[in-house]
Specification:
Helix 3 runs antiparallel to helix 4 and helix 4 packs across helix 5. This protein is elongated. The strands form 2 sheets. A 6-stranded parallel sheet has the order 5-4-1-6-7-8. A two-stranded antiparallel ribbon has the order 2-3. The chain has 2 domains: about 130 residues, Rossmann fold (3-Layer(aba) Sandwich), CATH 3.40.50; about 80 residues. By secondary structure, it is of the alpha/beta class. The chain is built from 10 helices and 8 strands. The protein is about 45% helix and about 15% strand. It starts with 9 loop residues before the first strand and ends in a 7-residue tail after the last strand.
Length: about 230
């Protein structure tokens, strides 16, 4: 077992690029989005696409306190409407509705890392496991489809608090739910910024670089696969 875990009681995990990754290679531009956008999207430059994604994300960030998957689907509808308008894709209401509902309800959009379930199963025998994730209400369907939800004792989701990591409220909520001091916990995430937020309140950070984009210089312990934990 990784030495950092030997004196810890709780292990918190991020989800995206920690436990799973998107089939399409993009969390918001799903395969269904690419299928329905079709050739219209190929006419757009990378700069235009980045600006459209930023505009959509700005909308999502403004009101993240949501409760149901139907509210999630409604938010995603408006996200994809913004993206379509910015890129002049001229997508119909039916197309946007289909994409938004696919993003909300289709759990085939996600693939679990090959070693993730075995590692989670193994660690659940020696530690209490929790989640700290920037996400939407569909997350539990996602984790259930990946067959790992049952191993987590508590979860802090951004949509429940209306804030994202590294807001300290995310970590304080997680500590309150687990009932342990920060020094008795570890947090595994693919973002150094999110780990900074955890470290500031005393949680031990571990950077996971399963996604090559996360393989950066960091003062924190770094792993490239969850299997390194055991």
């Amino acid at each position: 077992m990784l030495d950092l875990l030997s004196d810890k009681h709780v292990i918190f995990f991020d989800v995206g690029y920690t436990l799973d990754y998107p089939v399409s290679g993009d969390w918001m531009f799903t395969n269904r989005f690419y299928e329905l956008a079709g050739e219209r999207l190929t006419r757009c430059s990378e700069t235009q696409i980045s600006k459209a994604k930023e505009a959509g994300a700005d909308y999502l960030d403004k009101d993240h306190l949501i409760r149901t998957q139907e509210e999630e689907a409604e938010q995603f509808y408006l996200y994809y409407r913004i993206v379509s308008d910015c890129l002049q894709l001229e997508m119909t209401d039916n197309e946007i509705t289909e994409i938004a509902r696919d993003r909300t309800y289709n759990m085939d959009n996600y693939i679990i890392y090959p070693d993730a379930k075995e590692v989670i199963q193994t660690l659940s025998k020696t530690h209490r496991l929790g989640l700290i994730s920037d996400t939407w209400p569909s997350i539990e369907d996602q984790l259930r489809a990946l067959d790992v939800l049952q191993y987590f004792s508590f979860a802090t989701y951004s949509f429940s608090l209306g804030v994202f990591k590294p807001d300290r409220r995310m970590y304080l909520d997680a500590l309150q739910k687990c009932g342990h001091d920060a020094k008795e916990t570890v947090f595994i995430d693919d973002s150094p910024c999110n780990l900074d937020g955890a470290a500031e309140i005393g949680i031990t950070p571990i950077l996971i670089a399963a996604n090559p984009a996360s393989d950066v210089e960091t003062p924190y312990r770094k792993i490239h696969s969850l299997s390194e934990l055991i």
